[in-house]
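Inputs:
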Amino acid sequence: MTDFLLTHAQTIVAEALAHGRKSGFQPLAVAVLDARGALKAFAAEDGTSLKRGEIARGKAFGALAMGLGSRALHRMAGERPHFVEALHGVVEGPLVPVPGGVLIRDASGRLLGAVGISGDTSDNDEAAALAGIAAVKLTADPGQ
Amino acid sequence: MTDFLLTHAQTIVAEALAHGRKSGFQPLAVAVLDARGALKAFAAEDGTSLKRGEIARGKAFGALAMGLGSRALHRMAGERPHFVEALHGVVEGPLVPVPGGVLIRDASGRLLGAVGISGDTSDNDEAAALAGIAAVKLTADPGQ
Amino acid sequence: MTDFLLTHAQTIVAEALAHGRKSGFQPLAVAVLDARGALKAFAAEDGTSLKRGEIARGKAFGALAMGLGSRALHRMAGERPHFVEALHGVVEGPLVPVPGGVLIRDASGRLLGAVGISGDTSDNDEAAALAGIAAVKLTADPGQ
Amino acid sequence: MTDFLLTHAQTIVAEALAHGRKSGFQPLAVAVLDARGALKAFAAEDGTSLKRGEIARGKAFGALAMGLGSRALHRMAGERPHFVEALHGVVEGPLVPVPGGVLIRDASGRLLGAVGISGDTSDNDEAAALAGIAAVKLTADPGQ
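Outputs:
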């Protein structure tokens, strides 16, 4: 069993931001939550819009709320919009059903937390999240 | 760098209302927010409906929240409705994704605030916002 | 019967700010609501804190909610704190029970709206409100 | 004028945590907000309780909302409890009126943001915030 430590979360933030910078992405906000949904580490690049960080957190929180990477929530929102709409009143927290909210698991599949990123396209946000999780050698689950 | 002063905000309100009157628009509510999303100046013409001012504020606040003029949010609401629906629970403030919420920038592109107008058609609301911003020689970004 | 017009509200804002400036007050936020509780005119001096305008609005809205100038609400909060605490969950809007929220009446006593001011001491906030209302020759009721 | 950059915010977080560790404090949550009230950097030490981070954010956000270090809000809560209670419904965000929410200013006095810390005693939380702000050579205003 792997403890999910602040150092892991901070490395994910740093590597996700580094991925965005070297890829020429728009300024990113990166939120890393632990398995309880509590914020563990966060950074917003200079120039992010007023609520960009809340969107990042909503991608990660929504993923944890449902146990599904937010790409899966995005697909569900297309297939069953009334279900995803209902979730907003249910989850007692933000839920943003677009790609970029990625579950973090250890090698045994145990859920450790989630990272949510917003700022560029959803696909690019997700790519930055995957880069961050790869840097700590944990398993990323972006949803399908 | 340009400081965004109360006198700028009050001139935007006055000129937007003047534009609406001379164009024969319905009564307008005009909200000018600074870059923090804090209301700086506001006026509601005589005869505006009970929550018209909240709609005006929601156009401006939504634009600042996302860093996009509300015309762009209107387009996104058509293309990705589940994303814009989710934002309502995320932005910790009002967000009205129709034209009429216009970002205000200085000559260097720095974001100073936003104006939101509601009362007539969305296109006319936006035109009044543009007239107000032009009067203080700042740059308007209504979104695309 | 007197109609309460935007020009009245704008004059109240301008004169209240002028009173604060010539008196050397801290930067003021001034909110004028009509009898429905809808915002009619507003200005925040340069340098007001992030939520100062919400406090100003809460003084005025609370006064309208109860039909009492906010100085009376302040007294009630001392005498019956549980009652004023309960109001926060009841009035469906902000209520700030300190002086500076002043009802506006016409010569016949008919309620036209309220002005709320925040930024300096409560007594000074109220004095600026009284100055604004005097300038339009309407009757101020600050509560007792 | 000093821009308040992510590197400043991240250094404040790192130095505040380092201060807490070397002082033997309980695990701290540290939130740094910019002048808009938007989260810029955050970290929660391993072992912080479920909502500790929200308390940290509430100390910083409350300070920005009122333009006063949270030690001043703590004093106000003792002197005028009904006023501080009312603020909870007004500020459209969290407000925690105990020491540990410290305003950050540049050398000219311009407000750049705030840091909020929670985890140990309020006095120790505040001391960690001061250590963080000192490390970036900015001016701390904890309130009085």
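Remarks. The longest strand of chain C covers residues 111-118. The radius of gyration of chain C is 14 Å.
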